[in-house]
Design goal:
This protein has 121 residues and is of the alpha/beta class. The chain contains 2 helices and 10 strands. The strands form 2 sheets. A 7-stranded mixed β-sheet has the order 1-5-6-3-4-10-9. Strands 2-7-8 form a 3-stranded mixed β-sheet. This is HesB/IscA family protein.
Length: 121
């Protein structure tokens, strides 16, 4: 398996805030997923008004070519194509009555739509 673990390095992978890790781990556990193996997949897909959008889902394990980022007890899986777009991005979670959810701050985005859900590089 050629899965790359980037534990301890933040320069070329995804930064995960403690709040994002805590929320994702809670959701994983709520789905009865083993957090030692399972993780959050962060990916980029075509779509949105700016051309590209972020996607997230839980996976039981990484794919062979994924980069695996381990931060604050959370495993994040990123495929090679998506990593080209989101390398160095920060995954955060904000709670509250309005706008609660995961947010990606991407230094590679040259523009984004008004709602912040899609971007262009």
């Amino acid at each position: 398996m050629s899965t790359e673990s980037t534990t301890g390095t933040e320069d070329k992978a995804v930064v995960v805030t403690p709040d994002a890790a805590e929320e994702a781990i809670s959701l994983l556990e709520g789905e009865s997923m083993d957090t030692d193996v399972a993780g959050l997949r962060l990916f980029v897909q075509q779509g949105g008004c700016a051309g590209l959008s972020y996607g997230m889902r839980f996976d039981n394990e990484p794919e062979d070519d994924d980069t695996v980022v381990e931060r604050h007890g959370l495993r994040v899986f990123v495929d090679p194509a998506s990593l080209n777009y989101i390398s160095g991005a920060k995954l955060d979670y904000e709670g509250g009555l309005q706008g609660a959810g995961f947010h990606v701050e991407n230094p590679n985005a040259t523009s984004s739509c008004g709602c912040g859900e899609s971007f262009r590089t």
